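hi! just following up on the protien thing from before. the input was this:
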Amino acid sequence: MTGLDLAALAIVLLFFLLGLKRGLVREVISLAAWLVAFFLAGRLAQWLGPHLPGMTEGGLRDAVAMGLAFIAILLAAMLLSMVLKGLVKVVGLSLEDRLLGGVFGLLRGGVVLVLLVLTSGLTALPQTEVWQRSALRAPLEALALNFRPLLPESLSKKIRFT
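and the predicted 3d structure came back as:
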């Protein structure tokens, strides 16, 4: 087990604990926001990219546009979550809500890992010894590659794990 494996497990554990603390209702909103942001950010990047001043290189422009769209979607979901949190507070959070929130936290941690692995595929990190020795490398790379078609083509072409 390498430091990357420990970091991946720490990320998943962190999101699990946050899910336990926040409960199912907030975690469902949060997970939905991350998934919607991931699926829509690539499409919005194609529209937003040409409007970014001073950015002409396709891959970098698309990556910046995708990042901005992703953040904007998460911020909008955060506002929705704040409103719904107020409504849920009136009802109260039960033990079941918190436990199911932990399960959703695990799912959200998985989404974060996939995003980190996809981003790593744009760097030289996958060629390093620590990456190659990682016990979680193969399953995370395989999972990440399933999401590559959702990215802008100019960015997707640059993701390499070998």
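The chain has a mean pLDDT of 86.
The two ends are 20 Å apart (CA to CA).
cheers
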